[in-house]
Recover the amino acids of this structure.
């Protein structure tokens, strides 16, 4: 059986909790209509959406599925996702600590993951196949300091830790969450290993976000390498990484380019070259049509065809990934980034990220 798996950062967030839901409720939101048109064009069987609000009822995720994805528009066929999993997130949850060191608590930068309200920038999975919710593993509460050889941020001037011991011992690794979500496809199970690490910017010389981004990605390397690791403890208290014979897809907006940008590229390079991972290198023709006036793009060394996001004056980057395990035969792969003359080009204005998809054969 062939299935198409995709990731898409849709940038659906507001300034207050509930704002996005209210904006979408009548089914007429122009941004969401464009996002749905992309989904209906690529037609993934399993879709991870980054940057969608989380509520315990999954209200926003269900709303976009029912009032946008499942509604035919502009000659495009609707697509139904009977199975939805909305993931809770560290974003906007106050840590009770002064994480940015400005002697003030309760700010967006003092949340376990940056956010102005709980559930902002979260994730949801939409699937045509059953989601094994009983066996989902989450690592929302996993401590950064529990990861061996963690990149603890240091002040380069004083050579002292940016976070004092009392804070470092409580910090969570995941800026949103790390998910292992089993999808049941006939007799086979595929584990979606989903995350959305913090961008490696918006910090100072200590590079605290760069360090965290690196370790959020490296978590998956450890998860694939160490099926018996006692230090990999999920939110239910179960330990260990992924079994060595399990089929999987690592996916999400990982906010890391292996060749360009301000991040620490070692972790994403390790993941891309991992012995269990197949990098199909999804590409597009549209990404190569860079703005000739964009000096940042001109300085990049990565293959422009592989880029998945347009960050304006900062340039184009490859930051969104769908990486299947090697026992899943890759049939096709791509990035939805049409050329300028393509009539679908206007759709990509809905987000600064592009949908990345991979089609695989499930044994």
């Amino acid at each position: 059986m062939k299935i198409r798996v995709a990731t898409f950062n849709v940038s659906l967030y507001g300034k207050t909790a509930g704002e996005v839901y209210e904006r979408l409720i009548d089914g007429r939101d122009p941004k969401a209509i464009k996002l749905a048109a992309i989904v209906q064009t690529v037609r993934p069987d399993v879709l991870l959406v980054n940057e969608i609000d989380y509520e315990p009822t999954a209200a926003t995720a269900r709303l976009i599925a029912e009032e946008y994805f499942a509604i035919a528009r502009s000659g495009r066929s609707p697509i139904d996702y009977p199975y939805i999993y909305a993931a809770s997130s560290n974003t906007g949850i106050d840590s009770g600590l002064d994480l940015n060191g400005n002697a003030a608590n309760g700010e967006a930068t003092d949340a376990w993951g940056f956010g102005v309200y709980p559930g902002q920038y979260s994730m949801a999975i939409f699937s045509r196949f059953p989601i094994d919710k009983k066996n989902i593993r989450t690592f929302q509460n996993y401590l950064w300091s529990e990861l061996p050889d963690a990149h603890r941020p240091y002040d380069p001037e004083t050579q002292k830790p940016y976070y004092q011991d009392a804070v470092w011992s409580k910090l969570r690794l995941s800026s949103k969450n790390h998910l292992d979500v089993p999808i049941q496809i006939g007799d086979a199970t595929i584990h979606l290993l989903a995350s959305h690490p913090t961008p490696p910017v918006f910090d100072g010389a200590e590079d605290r976000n760069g360090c965290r981004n690196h370790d959020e990605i490296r978590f998956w390397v450890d998860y694939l390498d160490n099926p018996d690791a006692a230090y990999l403890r999920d939110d239910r208290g179960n330990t260990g990484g992924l079994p060595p014979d399990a089929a999987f897809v690592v996916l999400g907006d990982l906010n890391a380019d292996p060749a360009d940008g301000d991040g620490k590229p070692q972790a994403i390079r390790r993941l891309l070259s991992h012995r269990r991972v197949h990098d199909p290198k999804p590409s597009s023709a549209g990404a190569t049509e860079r703005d000739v006036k964009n000096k940042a793009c001109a300085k990049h060394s990565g293959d422009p065809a592989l880029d998945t996001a347009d960050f304006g004056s900062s340039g184009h980057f490859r930051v969104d990934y769908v990486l299947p395990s090697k026992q899943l035969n890759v049939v096709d792969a791509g990035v939805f980034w049409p050329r300028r003359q393509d009539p679908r080009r206007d759709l990509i204005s809905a987000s600064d990220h592009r949908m990345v998809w991979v089609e695989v054969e499930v044994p």
